[in-house]
Design goal:
about 300 residues; alpha/beta; 7-stranded mixed sheet; 6-stranded mixed sheet; 18 strands; about 15% helix; Surface-anchored_actinobac; Choice-of-anchor M domain-containing protein; membrane
């Protein structure tokens, strides 16, 4: 059966943001060592398990690659990593209307990083399991697709275990940004479809609210070389030239700065202006009342 139709993960209901589901216990359970080091130097990852995710250390919020192919596992900077999707990942688009979102005719060969692991293909997921992140936030993060630069379209989708309808999370043919809400302590894998071989640059952003109400945001570019004939060096040297949307989570009420003891200058101005209007109105009422009383006295004297 095609890798496009036998992937397994739990799918949750989408809310205001599309929600990246938290998978059921199916081999994805993991705990990250808080002392894992950050490796230096370039790395080409073409087989094995890797995750994209945020890290929080000493007040510094970053996006890194958790490389589980290394022994012991390490974190890597995105600028040091190229994910290579070999031709072993080629699948053909199913002849099924449910997969029309792929944007290719049935039978078209495409490169697929599957949701369930293929030992011959790099297995790309994401997690919010860095111990520093879990200690610093309470709810989760917003994972944003900001843009894709490459020779073809990119689609990321989930397939439920009962072969239900695919749930599209990201689609490079749609407007950006494309946000996903990811709960804390989540580890998820999805299907990644690349329409054509070549170098892809995927701009991503992770935003969260810390326990103290502070907003943190990190942006990075994921480098992917699709196809055996695509030079890895081209992926390392490629530069994202497109424009990126301004994003970032909307601050919650707890994160909005409170005015100092002097109050807001605008509020003070409004109060002063309102007071002046009330004074003028009161004077006008008093003057008018005095005129009416004077006119009444004059009429009594005339009578």
């Amino acid at each position: 059966m095609s890798q496009l139709t036998n992937s397994i993960v739990a799918v949750l209901t989408a809310a205001t943001l599309a929600v990246a589901p938290t998978p059921a216990p199916d081999g994805l359970t993991q705990t990250l060592d808080p002392n894992q080091s950050v490796a230096s130097g370039r790395a080409v990852l073409e087989k094995g398990h890797v995750d994209l995710g945020p890290r929080y250390r000493d007040g510094d919020w970053t996006i890194q690659i958790h490389d589980d192919t290394a022994v012991p596992p390490v974190w890597r900077k995105l600028s040091d990593v190229v994910l290579r999707v070999r031709d072993a990942a080629v699948e053909r688009v199913p002849d099924d209307p449910a997969y029309a979102f792929v944007g290719q005719p049935p039978g078209t060969p495409v490169h697929v990083v599957p949701q369930t692991q293929n030992q011959d293909v790099v297995w790309v997921g994401w997690n919010t399991q860095d111990p520093g992140v879990m200690a610093a936030i309470s709810r989760g993060v917003t994972m944003n697709l900001l843009g894709v630069q490459g020779p073809g379209g990119v689609v990321v989708y989930l397939q439920s275990g009962n072969l239900g309808a695919p749930q599209v999370l990201w689609d490079s043919t749609k407007p950006f940004p494309q946000p996903l809400w990811v709960e804390t302590n989540t580890h998820t894998h999805a299907n990644w479809i690349f329409a054509k071989p070549g170098v892809y640059l995927v701009a991503v952003e992770f935003t969260a609210e810390l326990l103290d109400g502070k907003q943190v945001t990190g942006r990075e570019t994921l480098r992917i070389a699709v196809g055996d004939s695509t030079p890895v060096d081209d992926a390392f040297t490629a530069v994202y030239t497109g424009s990126l949307p301004g994003t970032g989570a909307t601050p919650s009420p707890a994160a909005v700065a409170e005015p100092d003891d002097g109050g807001s200058p605008l509020l003070v101005g409004v109060l002063v202006g309102a007071g002046a209007v009330l004074v003028v109105a009161l004077i006008w009422v008093l003057v008018r009342g005095a005129r009416i009383r004077r006119r009444a006295l004059d009429q009594e004297e005339s009578a």
